Amino acid sequence: MSRSDPLRSLSDKVRPLALARDHSLPLSPALRDLVPSGAIQRGSTVLVTADAGGPQGATSLAFALVAAASDAGSWCAAVGFPDLGAVAVAELGVDLDRLALVPRPEPAQWISVMGALLDAVDVVIVRPPARLRVGDCRRLTARARERKTVLIPVGSWVEGADVRLTVTGSWWEGLGAGDGCLRTRRLEVTANGRGAAARPHHATLWLPHDAAAYAGADADLLPDPAPAETGPLRSAG
Amino acid sequence: MTRTLVVWCPDWPLVAAGIPPGVPAAVFHANRVVACTAAARAEGVGKGLRRREAQSRCPDLVIEQHNPARDARAFEPVIAAVEAFTTGVELSRPGTCALATRGPSRYFGGDEALARGIREKVDAVLAGRGEPSRVGIADGPFTAAMAARRDTLVPRGGSAAFLAPFPLSVLDEPDLTDLLHRLGLHTLGTFAALPATEVTARFGPVGEVAHRRAQGRDDRDIVGREPPPDLAVQVSLDPPADRVDTAAFAAKSMADELCGSLAASGLACTCLLVEAETEHGEHLRRVWRHHRAFTPATIAERVRWQLDAWLAETTRCGCPLGAPCPGGEPCPSGEPCPGGGACPNPVGGTSGGLILLRLAPEEVDRAHARQGGFWGGITEADDRAARGLARVQAILGPEGVVTAVLGGGRGPYEQVRLVPWGEPRTTAQPQPRATAQPQPRATAQPQPPRPRKNEAKAGTRVRTSGRSPSPTEQPAWPGRVPRPFPVCTPGHPDPAQVVDDRGRSVGVSSRSLLTHAPAQLSIAGGPWQPITTWAGPWTADERWWDPAAHRRRARLQVMVATGGAYLVTLEGGRWWLEATYD
Question: Within the 108-127 window of chain A, which residues sit less than 8 Å (CB to CB) from chain B?
């Protein structure tokens, strides 16, 4: 490696400019073709839901969305997941040091808790309560946009989502009739929404998407390996 | 010579370790006994004995490691009890403290009354955890320590006569004692009878000091310790503060004062107790933690949140559920009481203004250990998150916001421990890596789907045989279900049913094999779902050495026709839905 690497990282740290990429949170390579820009815009609301008939995978997809951002130092909060399997969340790539859980917010205080969290952290993943008012949804979406926080409701959101990711199918690989074990899962996801994301877009994902999980899956079914990351070239000084 | 009182708590290291005197136990340091209980002494265990020798004399001896810090910590309440009588108490060593009796003896009505008072107070602190304390008063600290062993009062001028029969070993000078023994001197009395000039000439300064002690002429002064400063700050509010901003304003200046006095001692507060009292005698308290250190601004902020929450809290009905509330309509407990102020059992809420506000640091740390770096470390975003999460804690209570800490375990639920936000995130058990980076261990996946039962047992035994794994060594959890882990793991699993194609319930044989091939699954009495593929069982026989905590479980991964995958567990003849791969 060249001598300029530490210099480049230093120049990244002291740079006063706000670049376009600072207005968005990074996505892991496997999830980039879900949304048009390949990243989640700060301040947007991304609804993760599943088709009627109930394929699983919405919760995993929601946490996989924040994995890269969490790894890059963003703070996340998860509201209303009393049964969350934190091992699985860590395995998806979320840094548990920067994940705050509010497992059981009292219904009367749900709005004020959400408001405080949208002010505090970069991403709020929420499973909304069963009875959700349109007004509350609008207020929280607006607050997220104002505070540049990404709001990821899982399950339902009455209105105002910028991107809607719907899991239409989920199949696990690796199990047999009494042999093997769960290895990886193929998720069929449909993305639509507003603005640039308006055109419905279908994608197939693998979760968990690391190399070890691929080891036993059918080679034909696997996507091409993600292209290697190339950082933007920028000379220091 | 200073008339001295010595308080001695026998076998203090064992009291500090929480071992009752009836249990034969000993504290070891460098393979030698440093203290033992009365029960162990009755079996022949004594100070200085080697561990193997002690264990051969008393086979069921409980062994404790020497921990001076714990001993000193546990002795602190005793010192505080003695300091109620006088300041200037000297901590000789954990278990023994000394004080000059001149002032307090006169105040409390003589030596005997003082000794009795101190003994009662100390025994009240000990609360039967060890043998009763012993108090001795004599001229000079050394004689008083000997008097404390006998729990007696030595009259003025009676030191030499009192000390004469003691063996030389009480001088705690092994070389000198050994030499004197060989010279035919065995008691303090015979040693004290030697002329002082000859002793100094023959044994030097060490001999001279020992000789003076043996004669009861120990003129060492008591070096009293300085009591730790009381850092708590409190303010009486007069007139009572009935608005949040009035009290918060007072809290700001208190916070300044508290942080100033902490900084003067080089300390920073990481855990703070905020207490308030209303004019009707209600006492409100809450503990706050800070991940780094409290500053005046953050303290004032938390006091304000706390007061906001208290004053916003409405009075609820405390009547038993469904019982008619005499104050009004029958009301469900937990709802705002329709009877209003007439309810006889109100719960929560505050009445009246605040008359007292108190800030007490619960935990402090060295200030320099809590400073952020220039780059890296704690950033602005971290501070913003910390403030916001503390705000949510003010709304929901400290347990309302948690973070997850990974530990060891076989089931996905057991591997996670939830700690309230702000508490230290320490792992109780060595932590297996479960991150997105492929680990060398992970490439070895999948584990054999059918681990043998004896293998699981052998693995468990290794962990409990006293061999602690080294920091780099990852503990193995035989019988653990391999990655990926399920994302939904309820703490209270739903019951499930797993049957084969002829409707017979599936079981696991003693050889860890399924009795039938699973074909259908029903969750919590729901509809039957056909099982398309499955794997397992992963059997785990955990804590077989403890009948109360012993659990035998067999886990099965199943996938149903809709594509949903579940982890079902057989325990005690029943199936449970342990987790969902949502």
Answer: 109, 112-113, 116-117, 119-122
